[in-house]
Amino acid sequence: MSKREPQINLRLPQELKDKVHEIAAENHRSVNSELVRMIEACVAEYYFFKESEGQGHYSFEELEEEIGEEEISEEDYERRINRALSLMQESMKALKEKS
Fold first, then answer.
1. Does the chain have fewer CB atoms within 10 Å around its N or its C terminus?
2. What are the structural domain ranges in the chain?
């Protein structure tokens, strides 16, 4: 008997479901595989921002004003950008290795 991955029942608006089906077809994947890749990408993005900015969020969200508009030096800004790029490259590499 093969081990099965945990399952989840997910309700989606019809329009979103149709879009996911369309994207999966374009990428020659099953809908399940496409959803797993989408979720993996969102989780990687969340942790990317958590590591680089100190607070996890998604690029499509408005970052709350808790962080504020602190003044940072150009050197610190460049260090943060380079760290963010490095984390994104690591995430993309890990996703490619999984496929």
1. N
2. 14-60+73-98
